[in-house]
Amino acid sequence: MPKIKYDISKGLHQVAGKGLTINFLDFLAGNQNNLTGTAAAITDAEADSAKSSASASNIAAARMAPNAVNTLAFDAGAAGAIYLPKGTADTHLALHITGDMDEANALDIFCRGAADASGSEVLARQVIGAEYQGAAASSVLTAGTAAAPTSVKLIYTPAAAATNFLQVGSMIHFYCIVENQWLVKVFNVPEGAGSTGAFTVA
Predict the structure, then answer these.
(1) Which residues lie across from 64 on neighbouring strands?
(2) pLDDT tens-digit readout, 101-128
(3) What's the domain count of the chain?
(4) How many CA atoms lie within 13 A of 84 on its CB side?
């Protein structure tokens, strides 16, 4: 989506962004048909290693690919981390949760840190929440302002229970609305009552 400003000399005019694109509509709808890039299949061990030792090679192994439906087999047996790619405007990608997260260890989803990232990527100012809610903490407001957002990671912390709101089959879509700012949309599949688990940001 574009950023629009108004001033007396120019009236309404676009100052940033790429307008209403197919990628943005796909992001809103959760459509995967146009995500045809080579996906990253991130294993539980790779996510664990990227958290315990954030070396360049460990981060690279836990980096999601743009224009693709990436998979994550993280099971929350230990704390884990994964990384978004460079925040180029109009980039869309998805993450398919394939691991059963049923232990109380957090997953960090970092906007920056990958080798191709600029180091300026953040979560755009937004409320990130589960499409199909149940848990009290299944949504979170990112930090900063619309003009200057500051959150650099989304954190999901499950409970050690079979009742978490984000489980196998869940899809998380990411869209870079303007350069270096990511939007997030969560299409979740709850386990059982879906009454546990929490999103936070940092």
Answers:
(1) none
(2) 999 999 999 999 999 999 999 999 999 9
(3) 1
(4) 31
